[in-house]
Amino acid sequence: MSHTHWDREWYHTAARFRQRLVALLDAVLGRQHTGETFLLDGQAITLLDYLAVRPEREAEIGARLQAGTLEAGPWYVLADNLIPSGEAILRNLEAGHRVMRGLGAAPPPVLYCPDTFGHPAALPSIAAGYGFGTAIVWRGAGGAAHPASDAFRWHAADGASVATHHLPPDGYEYGSALPVEADAAAARWQRMYSVLTARNRTGVLLLLNGADHHALQPDIIDAVAALRDAAVADAVVQRASLTAFADRFVAACRDVALPVVQGELRDSYGYTWTLGGTLGTRAQQKRRNALLERALLRDVEPWLALSWLHHATARARGIASDGTVTLAQLPALLNIAWQELLETHPHDTLCGCSIDHVARAMDARQESVQSQAWELRRAALNLALPHDVVTARLRPISLDTPQALVVRNRAATARGGIAELRLIETLADVAVGPGSTLAAPVDARSDAPPPQVSGVLVQPLDARVGHQRRESPQHYPDNDLVRVHRVVAWVPEVPALGLRVFASAPGDEADTDLPNTVPAVRIVESATAVMLDNERLRVTVCDGRVDIEQGARRLESALSIESFADLGDSYTPSLRGEPERLTCVETVVRHRGPLRAAVRLTWESVDRDIRVQTTLILDAAADLLRCDVSGMNRRRNHRLQLKWRTGFSDPVTVADAAFGPVERHVARAPVDSREAVVPTMPMHRWVTQAQLGDCVTLFADGLAEAESSPGALSITLLRAIGELSRAALPERPGHAGWPSPTPDAQSLGRFRARVGCMLHADDADRLGMVSRAADALLVPLCGETWRDLDPASTTTQIAGPQLHGAALEASAVTLAQRGDGIILRAVNLSAAVVQGHWQLPHDGPWMVTRCRLDETPLDSPVRRDARVAFTAGPREIVTLHLTVARLA
Predict the structure, then answer these.
(1) What is the pLDDT of residue 513?
(2) In angstroms, how far apart are the furthest CA atoms of the chain?
(3) What digits encode the pLDDT tens for the residues 176-228?
(4) Which end of the chain is more exposed for a tag (fewer CB within 10 A), N or C?
(5) Are residues 378 and 434 in the same domain?
(6) Closest by CA position to 50, among listed 24, 31, 73, 74
(7) Euclidean distance between the first and the last CA atom of the chain, given in angstroms as a whole number
(8) Distance separating alpha carbons of residues 452 and 458, to the nearest angstrom
(9) Which residues touch 475 (CB under 8 Å, ≥6 apart)?
(10) Residue span of the signal peptide, if any (predicted)?
(11) Which CATH number fits the domain that encloses residue 809?
């Protein structure tokens, strides 16, 4: 099978590689050989890159794809699949299919993953959800725990499986540059045949003719003829497409008993390089990616669904005559934001193993997506409330104007309690243009008390003065000087995936007491220690030592920060010597309750080239200790970890991953392995150690590397390295990539993270408790003042879908990609059958269709009212398509 493996950016930028891509595809399209096929890797973005330069060839590209002589997809980009969330993996597939549909074609029926640095345990479920009967993988399989076979049946936890072809040790380039001379072809065939047949189970061999950025071999017809002659006694050699191979492979798998593989594929030790050490490289970019994914999934898509559920005018997707953004534009704009974020997901990009120019381009894309997400959220909320920005722009605002506080609940369960709010006061109008320097002075102090919200207890945190604009498509912006107060508040219950609107105005009397059932959090100081206590959790800080008590559970000296010398490269750590433990040099009380107590610890290295501040935060009624990390790194060539002691000598480790938890073990490499095992692991939202009925769970907001060792859980804050690849590493002799200096990857400068720690029981509700705690930390109740929203004319509560069922976790609430309606997706985190239901905000009536992940119906539509019941099998991903029932 002729192909190219196209790393879109790596040791060159995407723009530079695109120049070569255009020449490559021009050459492919210029050939007129009957039946000749070419695989443009497993990603569709290469088609867009080519058509950006050659738009006049779109019809020809479409015709070639439809005829099967050119293949691309199913992915939008060949992404890393261990770092992104499960929903981001689905968005990648959907974007790839969208490109192919736009060209009138479909991708090959193969989940093609030729160079990903490992694969999630849920990938067979994803394959089944898109109708793929075949997967092709290389790295991640072949280790000591896997069968010595080029074909296996890969099972997911929900029972889905996919026939998987495993590439040979040299991967997708094994059949590159085939010779045309008879003697050379015979010698090459003997070498290849011995390797391929040693592991073959099906009688079908796949020889990939191509390599990184390789164009189609010009004399491939003669080379295949020579190979056919050389192999005549052993095999029938045919040129084939990826689709043709998949058909033959699936048919052959039916006739043999394939070995079974379960779980993640993260072990190629002794077979080929696994390259599992990239998880901590350029750690802040990985963290920002997780924040952006979460922003789109939890703070944009649900509000689009909310507007669809409540407003027939929004469902109509009409174009607004005044230029306001509506559902006529928002789905396409959301897709564009996702596509730009996905452009940062190729494994060389997101894993951090590219040159600095590529990393800077990733920074720019992430900044762009952040800006788009903010505007998408605002537009979606305007529709959901609803809020007419054109009329509101005409509403005069002053310090005395009643204003609305809009609180958002980004979880699929109703929640009240602690909310993080931005209360905004309008101080003065700020003119722009000639004469604007003559504005009268105003009180711009940042230490003024915050506005009060009627019936809500507020605890100030800090404030700043700045500018804020009110905008509409019919007016110039109204620029105002404002004072923004950051506060925590105790709010009444907010509907699931919904909104609650409160009135706020100067002069309102503030609540000063918490409900009787909620103890206030308090700070107790002595000459030697500071204690935070909310009657559920007690944290004591003394001379840099942090002790945590939760019921009968106690952790002593729970927190430390360690730096290890790391002489590795972007792919592989190479740790040296003993770790340096940073010293706590200062302890300062930041907040004293009654809603939030906080103590800031400052840590420094001996040479004072690493400085880290960890702010321990305990909220009223919280079961989780939050730790906000900010630091300054001036040290090169080291790894910095935040380490939490667990006290477990022989724990079981379970971690969050794509579409549900997985149990994790450190792989064991054979003695002849060319690569040492990297003991760290991917980190999504949480990782748990459990032993003898007790658990310690560590949460993080996007740092992608964790480590579980006897007695401790650690998170990598950063890896400071200065080379893309080094050849002389004892852990991995030889270059893994093209050597290039990467001074930006030294991660000099500021870094941040939000983590949390929870002590709890290993009981039946463990997974549900951890899921709720993750939401409390990562998507807390939040809100801000809408200065031009009139609270008197706004609905006070707008409810979204609420998920019910033990161990069920909401995965997506979003607009359908194919046709009208919304998608409700839930994951059963447990190994038991669960009866669940979505409670909708009103009776509709609705038509509900159970469907695959790609929205292909599995059952006939069923008419439902506000209660949409379903059964979720063990670890099943349940996707429901909801539309409005038509009246008879």
Answers:
(1) 66
(2) 94
(3) 999 999 999 999 999 999 999 999 999 999 999 999 999 999 999 999 999 99
(4) C
(5) no
(6) 24
(7) 54
(8) 7
(9) 390, 393, 394
(10) none
(11) 2.60.40.2220
**CATH code for position 145:** 3.20.110.10
Residue 710, preceding peptide bond in cis (omega within 30° of 0):
no
Is 4 within a domain? no
Tell me the C-alpha to C-alpha distance, in Å, between residue 759 and each of 398, 537, 655, 710, 770. Answer: 48, 9, 15, 16, 10
Tokens of 326: 């509506």
Instruction: Say yes or no: 528 and 571 in one domain.
Output: yes
Angle (CA) 518-778-461 rounded to 5° is 60
Same domain membership, residue 266 and residue 356: no
User: Do 268 and 305 fall within a single domain?
Assistant: no
Domain boundary among 750, 770, 792: 792
> What is 9-34 written as a DSSP string?
SSSS-HHHHHHHHHHHHHHHHH---T
Tell me the pairing of strands 161-166 and 260-262: unpaired
Residue 706, in any domain of the structure? yes
Q: To which H or E segment does residue 48 belong?
A: helix 45-53
Please report the pLDDT score of residue 508 as a whole number: 46
pLDDT of residue 873: 98
Question: Domain boundary at 386, 416, 442, which?
Answer: 386
Whether residues 354 and 402 fall in one domain: no
Output the domain CATH number for residue 402: 2.60.40
Contact present, 114 and 382 (Cβ < 8 Å): no
Residue 446: the pLDDT is: 73
Nearest to 496, CA basis, from 415, 406, 377: 415
Beta bridge partners of 587: 601
CA distances from 668 to 50, 200, 472, 672, 755 (A): 43, 24, 60, 12, 29
Tell me how far apart the alpha carbons of residues 104 and 619 are, in angstroms, rounded to a whole number: 54
Domain that holds residue 21: 14-274
Residue 412, token pair as written in the block? 């699929």
Q: Which residues of 634-657 are buried (b: 16+ CB within 10 A; e: fewer)?
A: ebbbbbbbbbbbbbbeebebbbbb
Q: Take residue 799 and report the two structure tokens written for it.
A: 């409810």
The CATH number given to whatever domain includes residue 569 is 2.70.98.30
Give pLDDT, residue 438. 63
Helix or strand or coil: residue 773?
helix
Inter-residue long-range contacts of 605-613, CB under 8 Å, 24+ positions, other chains counted: 605/563, 605/580, 605/635, 606/580, 607/635, 609/633, 609/634, 609/635, 610/563, 610/582, 610/634, 610/635, 610/640, 612/561, 612/582, 612/640, 612/717
Instruction: Give the chain's domain count.
Output: 5
- Asked, for residue 758, whether it belongs to a domain, the answer is yes
Domain match, 439 and 329 both = no
Closest CA to 816 of 315, 74, 130: 315
pLDDT for 400 equals 80
Q: In which residue are the tokens 């190979």 written?
A: 227
Cβ(534)–Cβ(619) below 8 Å: yes
At 374, which CATH number? 1.20.1270.50
DSSP one-letter code for 278: G
CA distances from residue 183 to 178, 222, 224, 227, 872 in whole angstroms, order as listed: 12, 14, 14, 10, 60
Contact partners, residue 196, CB within 8 Å, separation at least 6: 150, 168, 205, 207
Burial pattern 543-559, b for ≥16 Cβ within 10 A else e, equals: ebebbbbbeeeebeebb
Question: How many Å apart are CA 214 and CA 200, to the nearest integer?
Answer: 27
Domain check: are 90 and 215 in the same one? Answer: yes
Residues of the chain with pLDDT under 50: 507-509
769 domain-assigned:
no
Indicate if 33 and 96 belong to the same structural domain.
Answer: yes
